């Protein structure tokens, strides 16, 4: 709660246009000192109109004159919620009041989702980032130098702490503990910054109240996210009550420690890798195994993980995959080998560690080990509604209608198999029909060398879920896999079979 | 569950004395390959007789001939539990059956606890480790070379995962995520090893059942630990159910990743520190601030943390303390300073970062920020019994009788102050009397330069809890602090005031 002293300080701020730092609001000053929005920047601000983005806009406005900022609020109307249009008007109105040129963009999330066969949330997210890049390109055209442009997003410390907890429980290394980055370059090279990443949701709400901002309180894209919601509403309050009332700050500190350490270790590993790498034919990477073995064990693991990531394009390496490669490095068997994601394989070739793309007729086995979570949820269970929404997440999970499944297979949860393709495999498609997996692979243009690598959840020859795989060209299926439409859940579904993959490095 | 194939393999093991590795039990082989108990070692094994230590003993016995191990089981009778003596007989009997020379030692935990003014659990733990060292010294006398001696303890993967969760929720850096080390040297330089650290409690129990071992199932020293128990019985099952059934494996992997990374980063920081250090008078450490500033931010933080740890002797640095020093390093104020634990201070002296022991008459302020958890628990609350035991933990917490407090101070939980000493401060001692804090400090031989640094929880001039501080020579109070005896809880206590410090680096 703001004390009398606090509020007199903040009143000072509102009057201050002379850039007197001593009279500035704590939060404004913190953003200023964070250095993510340097003087003379042009800041594209994702303005949903919610408390986070509206607070960030207000802070930038406070900084505007002393910092000579050029603020470009961008409101993306997702045309999803009933009051989407009134929210658009509201955002535009605030910008008008504050004398800022608001750019409004409308996207049709539902059409994009249909076209790209992804969830509307995901369609919205992709389109939103694309729009920020488009605005950045426009600014470039208008003569703003690229290095002055910042895309500012209003993620806060609570988002950060939820991300960390989610990763810790699902499985992560130091990489994942670094959390949401406060600054990064997007694919087009624009700097994305998050100036509120160390500010709590509570501080933001206090700021918004104190400055009489009028945010749209229900504009939140992740309110539909299953795991995230349970973390926010249940796990964190539980941890605060029984273990540590400062658990959020503790997690935030952990991210602040892990971020630079991750960055440093990756740099060290990159240097080591460069020195170990030998000339190799295309689709092959060769490392000096002896040179690798004498390095510090932490560096060995990171070098191996870097190579696998680069080969496979898989950013979410499972721990066991890296361990398997480390084992063949240690192995006394000079021809040990291990399968990697994306149709690659690591092999010992005497004193070389070789990563190569394998032909599909190579002998192979299922690599690594998945943690597949299987749950049957009845309509009266607390998690039922959450899980209905979980399928829309980016997280690799599948939600199927349990009763439909039972009609074909009594106790289907006991019959699930995780395996690669077999002759005669088929998957349910729209209209109650089936498609051969072979045809699916052709339709989806999955390269031949990947086809024997795709993992699937099957009952007999019926495929319920083709697991996410970097070999699937379709972006959504690469991340979510492909779920049988035959057992798709509907409005009236009374029970779900919930499948989820966890444990990433 | 062991399948038919499994059990035929393990029968093979039991018969095998020829060291044929192919017929060896999986767990035996894993211990062998872990390399923590090399061939020709002499292994001092802490044998409580519980499933963990009995399984470890059985595994070492299986390895005995091929590895030429010399197994020395040591049973410590803590003389606490009703059946302590029958457990002693049981352990001795098993060793006789297996033809191993069991050494039995008895300790009087209650007397030690009274003498050292610590909990019986802590007294037991310290005495246990001391006994292992004594046995090691005996072996040395008998002609066993020191480098061949291993002190083997039977901590398992579940212990590891509980430790990690406890640290994550309380606050930790990468250091804490490294968890329980699988190998370390104790103060006398003996190697302590934990060959079962990557084996789950379930695997151990399966092994014990399969091999018809007869463990004492209730011998567990941490069964009385509050936080640990809630993590084991409540938090982990909850995370397994709603987030990830493989959460324990995920945490174990995290420890296995963090361990070597911690070790590597510390090495890097040590090298950097050596290069930055300048000649300094006693009780002072001087670093080249410019040289420090140009390093990678992860290394800067670690160098600073190393120096603070070395100065203060405080191994559990809070995040904010290190951050404060980093801030004065960045500060444009050439004479910024910050207080450190143990009566030290970090100062900018132009281009030097100086750590020096300060005189007690120096102006000072309360450093860092504690997360002090305050809870009032009534007898009918679920946590009541747990909390009664929590006071016996090593964790910095204080449990006071709430009703006794209320008789002196209505709503005492609202009147708590965290501060350093003031004239006239007193603390309750046995017999309903008070002692001046000044006298306490003299009695406890607290060096003068520390006295103004001790933090206390007070109501008015009455001290309820002197917080743990590295400046207190008494080992227990260094870790637990000193709690007022006036409000000590008793059998009939109906409500507790529970105070706990969290958030360590």
Automatic annotation (TrEMBL), chains A, B:
Residues 15-24 have a biased composition (Basic and acidic residues). Residues 1-14 have a biased composition (Polar residues). One of its GO terms (biological process) is tRNA modification. It catalyses: cytidine(34) in tRNA(Ile2) + L-lysine + ATP = lysidine(34) in tRNA(Ile2) + AMP + diphosphate + H(+). One of its GO terms (cellular component) is cytoplasm. Keywords: ATP-binding, Cytoplasm, Ligase, Nucleotide-binding, tRNA processing. Its EC number is 6.3.4.19. Residues 416-491 form the Lysidine-tRNA(Ile) synthetase C-terminal domain. Residues 1-24 are annotated as: Disordered. ATP binds at residues 48-53. GO terms for molecular function: ATP binding; tRNA(Ile)-lysidine synthase activity. Pfam families: ATP_bind_3 (PF01171), TilS_C (PF11734). Its main location: cytoplasm. InterPro entries: Lysidine-tRNA-synth_C, Rossmann-like_a/b/a_fold, TilS/TtcA_N, tRNA_Ile_lys_synt, tRNA_Ile_lys_synt_N. It is found in: Cytoplasm. Belongs to the tRNA(Ile)-lysidine synthase family. NCBIfam families: lysidine_TilS_C, lysidine_TilS_N. The N-terminal region contains the highly conserved SGGXDS motif, predicted to be a P-loop motif involved in ATP binding. Ligates lysine onto the cytidine present at position 34 of the AUA codon-specific tRNA(Ile) that contains the anticodon CAU, in an ATP-dependent manner. Cytidine is converted to lysidine, thus changing the amino acid specificity of the tRNA from methionine to isoleucine. This is tRNA(Ile)-lysidine synthase. It comes from Mogibacterium kristiansenii. The gene is tilS.
């Amino acid at each position: 709660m703001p004390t009398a002293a606090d509020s007199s300080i903040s009143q000072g701020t509102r009057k201050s246009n002379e850039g007197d730092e001593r009279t500035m609001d704590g939060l404004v000053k913190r953003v200023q000192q964070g250095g993510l929005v340097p003087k003379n920047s042009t800041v594209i601000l994702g303005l949903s109109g919610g408390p986070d983005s509206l607070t960030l806009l207000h802070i930038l406005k406070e900084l505007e004159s002393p910092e000579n900022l050029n603020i470009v609020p961008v409101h993306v109307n997702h045309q999803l919620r009933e009051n989407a249009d009134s929210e658009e008007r509201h955002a535009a109105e605030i910008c008008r009041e504050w004398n800022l040129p608001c750019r409004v963009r409308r996207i049709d999330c539902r059409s994009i989702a249909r076209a790209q066969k992804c969830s509307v949330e995901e369609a919205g997210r992709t389109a939103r980032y694309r729009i920020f890049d488009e605005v950045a390109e426009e600014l470039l055209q208008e003569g703003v130098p690229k290095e002055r442009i910042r895309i500012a997003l209003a993620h806060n410390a609570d988002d950060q702490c939820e991300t960390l907890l989610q990763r810790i429980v699902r499985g992560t290394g130091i990489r994942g503990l670094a959390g949401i980055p406060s600054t990064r370059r997007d694919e087009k090279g624009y700097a994305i910054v998050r100036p509120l990443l160390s500010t709590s949701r509570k501080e933001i709400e206090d700021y918004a109240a104190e400055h009489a901002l009028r945010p749209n309180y229900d504009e939140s894209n992740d309110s539909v996210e299953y795991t995230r919601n349970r973390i926010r509403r249940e796990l964190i309050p539980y941890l605060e009550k029984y273990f540590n009332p400062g658990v959020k700050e503790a997690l935030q500190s952990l991210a602040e420690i892990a971020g630079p350490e991750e960055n440093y270790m990756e740099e060290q590993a990159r240097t080591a890798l460069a020195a170990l790498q030998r000339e190799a034919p295309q689709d092959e990477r060769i490392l000096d195994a002896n040179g690798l073995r004498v390095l510090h064990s932490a560096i060995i693991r990171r070098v191996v993980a870097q190579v696998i990531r680069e080969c496979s394009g898989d950013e979410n390496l499972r721990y066991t995959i890296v361990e398997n490669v480390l084992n063949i490095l240690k192995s006394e068997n000079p021809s040990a080998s291990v399968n990697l994601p994306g149709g690659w394989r690591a092999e010992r070739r005497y004193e070389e560690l070789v990563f190569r793309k394998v032909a599909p007729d190579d002998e192979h086995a299922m690599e690594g080990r998945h943690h597949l979570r299987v749950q049957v949820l009845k309509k009266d269970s607390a998690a039922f509604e959450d899980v209905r929404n979980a399928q829309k997440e980016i997280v690799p999970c599948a939600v199927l209608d349990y009763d439909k499944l039972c009609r074909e297979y009594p106790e289907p949860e006991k019959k699930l198999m995780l395996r690669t393709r077999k002759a005669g495999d088929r998957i349910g498609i729209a209209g109650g029909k089936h498609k051969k997996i072979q045809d699916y692979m052709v339709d989806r243009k999955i390269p031949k060398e990947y086809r024997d690598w795709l993992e699937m959840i099957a009952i007999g020859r019926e495929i319920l879920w083709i697991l996410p795989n970097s070999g699937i060209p379709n972006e959504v299926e690469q991340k979510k896999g492909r779920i049988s439409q035959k057992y798709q859940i509907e409005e009236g579904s009374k029970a779900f079979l919930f499948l989820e993959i966890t444990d990433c490095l």
